[in-house]
Design goal:
mainly alpha; 2 domains; 4 helices; 86% helix; 0% strand
């Protein structure tokens, strides 16, 4: 990439970042509180629930990649056969 392309891309990303930063700074107290609640909920959904309710079944029950691949293949074949 040339320097002019880097500058235009950089300035586009900076403009987008400043747009959101400035919007958050100028937002009212209620809006900020709602965004904080949304971010906390997303954290709970993607981190806490993943850790406690969706363990890595394949890594804990199978030693090698081949065993994992065979298990997934067999499960998919079973699902296809049940739907026939």
């Amino acid at each position: 990439m040339s320097q002019s392309e880097n500058r235009s891309k950089d300035s586009w990303m900076r403009k987008a970042a400043y747009l959101y930063i400035d919007g958050f700074k100028n937002m009212g107290r209620l809006g900020k509180m709602l965004w904080i609640i949304i971010l906390i909920k997303l954290f709970v959904f993607f981190v806490v629930l993943k850790l406690f309710f969706f363990p890595n079944y394949l890594n804990t029950n199978f030693e090698t990649e081949q065993e994992r691949a065979d298990h997934v293949t067999n499960e998919l074949i079973d699902v296809i056969n049940k739907n026939k």
